[in-house]
Amino acid sequence: MNQIHIAKISSQLSLRPNQVEATAELLDGGATVPFIARYRKEATGSLDEVAVMAIRDRLSQLKELDDRRGSIIKSLEERELLTEELKEQIARAETMTILEDIYLPYRPKRRTRATIAREKGLEPLAELILAQDRALDPAGEAEAFVDQSKGVESAEDALAGARDIIAEWVNEDQTARGRIRRLFSREGSFRTCVVKGQEADGRKYEDYFDWAEPVAKAPSHRILAMRRGAREGFLRLRVEVPEEQALRILDDLFVKGHSACSAQVKEAACDGYKRLLSSSMGTEILAATRERADSEAIRVFADNLRELLLAPPLGRKNVLAIDPGFRTGCKVVCLDKQGQLKCSDVVYPHQGDRVAASGASKITSLCKQYDIEAIAIGNGTASRETESFIRGIQLGKDIPVVMVNESGASIYSASKVAREEFPDQDVTVRGAVSIGRRLTDPLAELVKIDAKSIGVGQYQHDVDQSMLKQSLDDVVTSCVNSVGVEVNTASKQLLTYVSGLGPQLAQNIIAYRNENGPFTSRRQLKKVPRLGAKAFEQAAGFLRIRDAANQLDSSAVHPESYRIVASMACDVGGSVAELMADNSLRAKVQLQNYVSETVGLPTLNDIMQELARPGRDPREQFETFSFADGVEKIEDVEVGMRLPGIVTNVAAFGAFVDIGVHQDGLVHISQLADHFVKEPSDVVKVQQKVTVTVLAVDIARKRISLSMKE
User: Fold this and answer.
1) Is 364 inside a domain boundary?
2) Does 34 share its domain with 131?
3) Residue among 382, 310, 380 nearest 347 (CA)
4) How many Å apart are CA 271 and CA 418, to the nearest integer?
5) The 330-335 sheet, strands edge to edge
6) Are the C-beta atoms of residues 146 and 156 closer than 8 Å to each other?
7) Residue 408: per-residue pLDDT
8) Which pLDDT score, from 0 to 100, does residue 602 have?
């Protein structure tokens, strides 16, 4: 265990060193974030998932820094350039930027103007000039370095070469780089202009054809937009600072007095800034701001994804699901309470009254035959028209009709996962099944789709893909484990995200279940091939077995704590089942009596909460929602209308709201509330039901501006 890392992380995250050290040890031992946060509270001091992930990520960053430190030292040793002083500097470097600044003068270089000047023997002249002796005549000294055989034709050639060397020294000076870096960070501006000849093709970037804004204040979405425009070849993007300020910094550092040598140094510093340092710092700032913008965009995406995955489930119901369409008709499927496909059909409600009447009769028959309890309609093409058709059918009982966000359903329907589930069905049937399952259990269905395709992110293809994957995987894993997974009905994809499992063990569980029938106890999981003691420890508490002989198997109580529950039940004169059912029995339990070296009050309190509500789903209760009648397409929308809607996406600049017209409207951040809003996510969440006022409608550009202000 690296105690230096522990101390740094403790200080940076404002945590006790023992909390960081315990978490690091658990992570090193293969424990997952959900397991540590849920079942190792005594060890970590009750750190939540956010804190555990922060420790994990910081440990990874420090290891990366140490690895780079080691490779630099090795490179310097191999070239016999490592001194004790340099080694100490490298050891003290706190960031990758500082480390690279230290290494820059020693980094193997391609041939530069400075290296060519050194080859001509001009470095001693550069040293003389940089010393800036007031009595020294640089032109006179340069005469001694004229050597036509080396390509130094004149004293001016010698001075030019010496200035090239000084310019490189200026560029590589740690102090100079640090101060110019701060100038770029604080005073720099992004500046974009259109690439000549790309005005028409790059029209979507018109706002940036002649644009400037401070680096320090530019929001993430604009940084990403500018970068995308530059990458696609429509914009030129650079970072600028007031040149006179930069040159003043360098003069203060390198120019001493007003001698002839000082004039040479001043000229060299100016050249070093314009030719080397400014472009180097510009590139650095672009990289740093990209990292900042990526982090912000990924954070917003992750927050949106969490809200979508934890959307309230309808629960175990018989569902009729419809993937609507005009010309090709509406694909209809019926699913049982376990989400299994019972039948599929097609109706054509939008091709004349006679055909629609036949479709209505078919829907009525299916609802009766399969005891349908809810109807799910995908929110794509023809959705509102299909909703009106369904609501017009006299179904004879109160069956809720729910619009379901179908983003990504087409990707699922064509995926390997869908083909494995429904090898004999076409993509339209698979898509309709996905729509129905999203209503009954959004989490279980959405984990089958690449999170980037679910439709709640922005610029997701522009950000760092490994960082994005890590963040989204963390969110999915957190959501799956916070809800818990019914092991006898879960798909392979859902089981994959359970703490300690992964794709192979998930597949082994499915295979064992198919061969031996439903699991009857958590203990039986140990019979699954390759599911050893460590995997069982990590996974068992998050897996549920409904109707198991031991009722604790359907709860979040970890098997390692079963004996504690048994002792509690015995001590109050009842069985485990009675303890779970009887609040008065639980009230008699004195938790302090069960505290040990490994189990403390945090775990005991969790156990008591779980006994009161075993297997409690943390998601909110499902509520039905309906769009406004008569507002089904963008042409129906009028300025001033007050309409119900559902938030489909939250971005840094506002929120997108589905008002049921096949085109989401935008509530700009300035229109989210009557008060100032710093972060849209402070006001709205994905899947939130809201009421909006229409501010503007642009039918040609398919844009709707909305407000949530009262």
Assistant:
1) yes
2) no
3) 382
4) 62
5) 341-347, 330-335, 319-323, 374-378, 401-404
6) no
7) 84
8) 95
Residue 387 resides in a domain: yes
> The domain spanning residue 656 has which CATH number?
2.40.50.140
Cα–Cα dist 145/123, whole Å = 10
Helices and strands, number each (H, E), in the chain: 30, 15
662 and 692 both lie in a single domain: yes
Residues 520 and 79: their CA atoms lie apart, in Å, by 66
Task: Identify the CATH number of the domain in which residue 288 sits.
Answer: 1.10.3500.10
Alpha helix (H) ranges present in 93-242? 96-103, 113-119, 123-131, 138-143, 155-172, 174-187, 220-231
In this structure, the answer to whether residues 149 and 87 fall within a common structural domain is no
- Domain identity same for 282 and 344: no
Domain containing residue 392: 319-440
Q: Where among 267, 302, 337 does a domain terminate?
A: 302
Q: Which neighbouring-strand residues pair with 249?
A: none
Angle at alpha carbon of residue 48, lines to 46 and 50, rounded to 5°: 150
Which tens digit of pLDDT belongs to each residue from 133-178?
Answer: 998 999 999 999 999 999 999 999 999 999 999 999 999 999 999 9
Q: Are 187 and 241 in contact (CB under 8 A)?
A: yes
The answer to whether residue 95 sits within a structural domain is yes
Residue 110: burial class (beta carbons within 10 Å; 0-12, 13-18, 19+): exposed
Give yes or no: residues 96 and 138 share one domain.
no
Same domain assignment for residues 239 and 292? yes
End-to-end CA, the chain: 56
Q: Which of 320, 420, 328, 324 is nearest to 375 (CA)?
A: 320
Of 258, 270, 261, nearest to 138 by C-alpha is 261
Residues forming a β-bridge with 192: 211, 237
DSSP for residue 273: I
DSSP designation for 182: H
User: How far is the C-alpha of 170 from the C-alpha of 272, rounded, in Å?
Assistant: 6
Q: Please state the separation of Cα 209 from the chain's center in Å.
A: 30
pTM of the full structure: 0.89
Q: How many domains does the chain have?
A: 4
Bridge-based pairing state of the strands 485-486 and 330-335: unpaired
The two three-digit tokens of residue 8, written as one number: 């740094």
Are 229 and 193 found together in one domain? yes
Q: How far is CA 408 from CA 332, 373, 402, 447, 622, in A?
A: 18, 25, 18, 11, 22
Do residues 4 and 28 lie in contact, with contact meaning Cβ atoms separated by under 8 Å? no
Residue 408 CA to residue 431 CA, distance in Å, equals 9
Among candidate residues 204, 187, 16, 177, the one with its CA nearest the CA of residue 100: 177
Which pLDDT score is estimated for 7?
A: 94
Residue with tokens 């299909």: 386
pLDDT at residue number 394: 82
In which residue ranges of the chain is pLDDT below 70?
Answer: 396
Q: Examine the domain organization and report whether 186 and 294 are in the same domain.
A: yes
What does the longest C-alpha to C-alpha distance in the chain come to? 107
Q: Are 444 and 494 in contact (CB under 8 A)?
A: yes
Q: Encode pLDDT of 547-566 as tens digits.
A: 899 999 999 999 999 999 99
